[in-house]
Amino acid sequence: MKEKIHCIVVDDEPVARDIIVTHIEKIPSLHLIKSCKNVIEAMEVIRSEKVDLVFLDINMPEISGLSLAKTVQNKTKVIFTTAYREYAIDGFDLHAVDYLLKPISFDRFLRAVHKFFDVSKENQVQQYKRKEAFENDYFFVRSERKMIKINFDEIVYVESLSDYVKIHMNDKKVLTRETISNIETKLPVNRFLRTHRSFIVSVDKISSYTNEFVEVANKAISISRSYKEQVLKKLENN
């Protein structure tokens, strides 16, 4: 018997919560831990329980859903459930599994849950690849019809260019048809830092920083609003 996915619902509107709860109850693989009326209540549950997935409203009193999403990044997956289309970019910057606009039909809800399972499966594969790569201290990317070896120590920063990624190294640049999120999974989190949806920098190569940018190799790289809290926290701890 497969282990169920433990989830919570976070929304300040009782009717909206009830709709999501009803959808959850129709999917046998989901187990609802609690329906929460605000972020503070949700954080208490996440601290005390194993929570795999959060169905999260954004526009709530006192503390927004975006703040909670930043707190649980990399630990718990999020599917946003909101009436506001304009938060979509912020939501996907935080690697949300999906972004559902109210009113949410069961069919659309089910597709989001299936996407969560696809993401979870892909994460397991990437974790294996990351472990394998970290043991070797390098990884390979395809560029110019061949596989190029990328040593962690030689990376200065990684830049997203639409459908391509440019890896800036000490003495060369490598262009590969990859997503920056895929490259991020190949890099050890203690040595590299995502500062923006388009940039990852080597922590060792940072020469200075402010609240708005980090400087590497005489280039100022922006710290976006979505990443600012975690970037500054890591740099201050270092």
Question: What is the topology?
Answer:
Layout: E1 5-10, H1 14-25, E2 30-36, H2 39-48, E3 53-56, H3 65-72, E4 77-82, H4 88-93, E5 98-101, H5 106-136, E6 138-143, E7 146-151, E8 155-161, E9 164-169, E10 173-176, H6 180-185, E11 192-196, E12 199-202, E13 206-209, E14 213-216, E15 219-222, H7 228-237
| CATH architecture label name of the largest domain | 3-Layer(aba) Sandwich
Percentage of β-strand residues: 25-35%
Secondary structure tally, helices: 7
User: What's the structural domain tally?
Assistant: 2
- Portion of residues within helices: 25-40%
Summarize the main sheet.
5 strands, parallel
DSSP strand tally: 15
Under CATH, the topology of the largest domain can be stated as Rossmann fold
The strand line-up of the biggest sheet is: 2-1-3-4-5
Classify the secondary structure makeup into a structural class.
Answer: alpha/beta
Mean pLDDT: 88
Rg of Cα set: 19 Å
The CATH homologous superfamily of the largest domain is called: Response regulator
Provide a compact summary of the structure:
By secondary structure, the protein is an alpha/beta fold. It is built from seven helices and 15 strands. 35% of the residues lie in helices and 32% in strands.
Annotation keywords:
five-stranded antiparallel beta sheet; elongated; OB fold (Dihydrolipoamide Acetyltransferase, E2P); 7 helices; Rossmann fold; five-stranded parallel beta sheet; 238 residues; 32% strand; single chain; 2 domains; alpha/beta
